Every structure is written in C-alpha cells, then in structure tokens.
Amino acid sequence: MEFLTQIINGLSQGSIFALVALGYSMVYGITQLINFAHGDIIMVGAYATYVMLILAGTPLWAAILAAVLFCAVVGVVIEQVAYQRLLNKNAPRISLLITAIGVSMLLQNLFQLIFKSDAKSVSNVLPSFPVPIGPLEISSVTLITIATSVVIMILLQLLVKKTRIGKAMRATSEDAGAAKLMGVSSRNTIAFTFAVGSGLAAVGAVLYVGAYPSITPYMGSLLGLKAFVAAVLGGIGSIPGAMIGGLLIGVAESLTKAVGLSQITDAVVFGILILVLLIKPTGLLGKNIKEKV
Amino acid sequence: MADNKVMLSVKDLEVYYGSIHAIKKVSFEVREGEIVTLIGANGAGKTTTLHAISGLVKAKSGELDFCGSNLRSMEAHRIIRLGLAQVPEGRRIFASMTVQENLEMGAYIRRDSANIQKDFDRIFERLPRLKERRRQIAGTLSGGEQQMLAIGRALMSNPKMLLLDEPSMGLSPLLVNEIFSIIRDVNQSGMTVLLVEQNAKQALEIANRAYVLETGTISMSGTASDLAADPKVRAAYLGAAD
Ligand SMILES: Nc1ncnc2c1ncn2[C@@H]1O[C@H](COP(=O)(O)OP(=O)(O)OP(=O)(O)O)[C@@H](O)[C@H]1O
Ligand SMILES: [Mg+2]
Predict the structure, then answer these.
(1) Cβ atoms < 10 Å from Cβ of A226
(2) Which tens digit of pLDDT belongs to each residue from A8-46?
(3) Touching check for A132 and chain B: CB below 8 Å?
(4) Domain for residue A255, yes or no?
C-alpha cells in the first residue's frame, strides 16, 4: 500500500516535471536550442502566482491565468531579445547555450532584486484534504496535480496534431527550410513555441507551489535541471517523450525516497541522465527517422 | 510560346556561400506555359539557383522577378504566396507526418477549404498511390512515392509555377518515366514548370527550352531540341560518343 502511494506521489511530482520538460523539448525540437533559462520561468510563474493570490488577493483561477499569460509573454520576450538574432545567424550552439545561462542568471538576479532572497510563502494555493481511494489515502493536491497535467497534455496533443499552427510547429521542427517553402514563418512558429512552453511551465509552477508552498528566486534551477533530465530521458524534441520522461523521473525520485534514500534522490536523477547519455543518447522516443535521399 | 509573357526572370544573379562564388551572373527566363529545364553536373549551382529564387539563400546581387514581384526583397515563407512552389532536392517531405498531413502542409497558405478539397481529389486522382497511403507515415513511403508526395504537396498550394529540383534523383528507370509523365501532365493542365535535372536526356525530351549551367554560369541555352542535337551537349550530358 505504501508502495502504491509512493508511485502516485511520484506520478504527481513527475507530471510537474513533464509540464516543464515539454517546454525544453518543444523549443529544442524547433530551434536545437537548450533553453537553460526555461527552469527560471517556473520561478517567474511562482512569483506571478504569489503576487496575484497574496498581494492582489485575486481568486485562484485569475492567478493561474495571469501566471500563464505573464510567463508566455516573458518567454517570447526572452526569445525575441536574447535568441532570435543568434538563431537567424545560425550561431554556434555554444553561443546559444551561454546566452541561455546568462538569461537564467539575469532572471534570478532580477527577481532577487525585486522580491529579496528570503522565501515567500503561499500556503493553500490548491485545496488540501485527504481523499480515500480504496484502501489508500491520497492528498487532494496530488490528485489535482495529476488530473490537471493529464488534461493539459491532452490539450497539447490536440494543439500539435490537429491545428494549423500545431502542424506548422511539427513541420518546422522536422525541416525548417521545407516548412518555409510551404509558407510557414519560422519566426512566428518559434515565438509561438516559446509562448506555449512557458505557459506550460507556469501551470507547472502553480502545481509545484500547491505542493511546496515556498518561493525563492532560485527555485527554478534544480527543478528545471530535473525537467531537463526528463526531456533527455524521453528523447529531447519529442513531446510524448517529455511526458513519459517526466513521469519516470518523478516515480524514480519518489521510490528512492520510499526505500529510505532521500539524501540521494538528486544523485539518482542525474545518474539517470548519465546512463541515458551513455546508453541511448537519443532517449526513449528520440528521433531516429532519417529522410530517404 | 515564345510570345507568352515572362513569368520568372532572373538577371545577373550572383550568389556566394562565404567566399565561395557559387552563381556568377546567371540570367534566364521562364514564360507562361513553358517547361524550361536547367541542366548541369554535380555542383554546377542548380540547387543554389532555385534556392535563391525561393528565398532559402540570399542573392548577393542581380534581379529576381516573378510576375512583377521582386523576390529578393521577400522572405522565403512569403514567396509561395505569390504562386511559386518548389519541389526541393531530396524531396524533403515531412517524414514523421502522414501523407495526408504533408499534403495539408502544402495547402498551408490557403483558407478556401472547398477548393482545397477539390485539389485533394484531383491530386489523388492523378497520384492514386498517395490516396491508398494517405494515413501512412510519409517516411515509410518508397523513394518514388515520396517524390510523388513532394510533387503533390507543392501542387496543393495551387501555384502558378512549379520549380522542381532533380525529381528523378535516385529512382528506377520505370519510376523516372512515371515522374516525367506526371510533370508533363501537370504542364499540360496549364502549369509553368522550371525543371532542374542531371537527367538531361529526359529533361530535354519534355522541355520547350533549356539552359546549361556549368560551374555557376550559363554556358549554353536554346530550344530543348536544339540543345539535344548539339554535339557538345551530347558529349557532356547525353553520354553520346560522337
Ligand atoms: N551551404 C553551402 N555552403 C557552402 N557551399 C555550398 C553550399 N551549398 C552549395 N555549395 C557549393 O555551391 C556550389 C553549387 O552547389 P549546388 O548544390 O547549387 O549544386 P547543384 O548543381 O545543385 O549540384 P547537385 O547536382 O549535386 O545537386 C557547389 O560548389 C557547392 O559545393
Ligand atoms: Mg542540387
């Protein structure tokens, strides 16, 4: 029973990783850029939630909406200001990576300047009570987190599979040049992808704060890195891969804790990264399809 | 056809890749209703010329005019909206998308769903193999089917003119015939075609006029039949010993 509870907790934590991993993966798929500032978008989303709920006293739905919109805008601004010129010029990847790390530091320091570095507490973001499921007792927060993530991932699949912009995203990520020949603007598609990825991270932020109600300017670093590991595990560039990778990392963490090794959970997660890179660098669902020429 | 109006006009085109001077003062034109072929060996600059027209590479100087629009001032994704579609070298279909989705991408710039449906039907009628495989992942198609898909995808934009970059590359003789017969049909239905080929024999058979590209410059031009009879062309591109 304890084991099953741990799995469910792992899935809950993992679905937050998955929401964040999607942003890494989608952006990478389209730009081959590893946006290391993406983790900090969680932090931005968490502060947005804090400002709305605590300082402005809005209801939860308004706080979520505001966090999602604000993060989407921040994501697009980062793309336009920091990355766009480099991407247009086909700059070496290392330049992009360094820029991303710079943006990450900028965000952390900016928020430290505005909100100071002491932790802000936002308790009871999500309604919290125990829910009996058969013989198990699961926290409502856990269930809300899983349910919200499932709904969002279904919506994301519909967006990517069924809509015009979704098809443009897939086409651009496969062959940006060929997509241009079809009339797809890479610029708009990339901006849209940053907006969606950052919006997903904002949802992840609200859910994360629901479970761990303490906000600091640095909270995005470790969470972001773990989500990045999840994206690599699933196969960076793959949307279903990011989802599966996120859930697996969450469960792996939670089981490590369950067997009494809480101190080494982070080591386990990064150990998984090293194993993936050694054994199957393309990840579980990474792209192997080569065009026939 | 020589009196038809000029659709595409290329004047003194110059393209560089860094310090490599790939296209040197290339000029040619394509008139409405024609099939014009641009033949040349590996590395002659055929793809570069097409990419300069479609905006995938930027020309250094020269004029590129399509139906009165200056292509050089336009971004790649806008050019198809003028009615200029390209079947790129190596097909470059979207391998992880279905056949149907690839064709939908071809119609990306269009909003007239009733007419799009008609074009689907027309393309499936001419390319029945695609219809059977419409739900199949495009990357799993055979080379010939992928080429048909690439042509179908370009036609879905309902263009005025089609640019084809070595559509016969890597195909068996039977399929090459099939592809050339599709190109001829498409042309007979009113489409203007600029065909880039290494397969000079068959390209010259279906074309009205031809240009020979050699290391970045046009070395010969004329009607397709004149060039096919020219001893130099025969020796260099048609494998004739005489
Ligand atoms: N991206 C690039 N960077 C540098 N040089 C390039 C690039 N693309 C092409 N070139 C060079 O430009 C010249 C023309 O190449 P292009 O691909 O246009 O030839 P092609 O006629 O299409 O050849 P093929 O028949 O092999 O397709 C070649 O010398 C080639 O090496
Ligand atoms: Mg070529």
Answers:
(1) 27
(2) 999 999 999 999 999 999 999 999 899 999 999 999 999
(3) no
(4) no
Ligand 1 pocket: which of B47, B51, B196 to mutate (most atoms within 8 A of CB): B47
Structural domains in chain A (count): 1
Q: Residue A270: inside a domain, yes or no?
A: no
Pick the residue from chain A with its C-alpha nearest to B102: A171
Distance from CA of A157 to the nearest CA of B (A): 14
Residue B238 confidence class, pLDDT cut points 50, 70, 90: confident
B237: Cβ contacts below 8 Å, ≥ 6 apart: B39, B41, B200, B201, B212
Helix (H) or strand (E) holding A164: helix A164-174
The answer regarding whether domain B6-91+161-237 maps to CATH 3.40.1280.10 reads no
Is A66 contained in some domain? Answer: yes
Separation of alpha carbons A289 and A91, rounded Å: 25
Hey, where are the domains in chain B? 6-91+161-237
* pLDDT (tens digit per residue) in B131-190: 999 999 999 999 999 999 999 999 999 999 999 999 999 899 999 999 999 999 999 999
Nearest residue on chain A to B78, alpha-carbon basis: A183
Query: How much is the pTM?
Result: 0.91
**Is residue A278 included in any domain, yes or no?**
no
Q: A203 lies in which domain range?
A: 12-224
Taking a C-beta distance cutoff of 8 angstroms, is the pair A88, A223 a contact? no
Residue count of chain B, please give it: 242
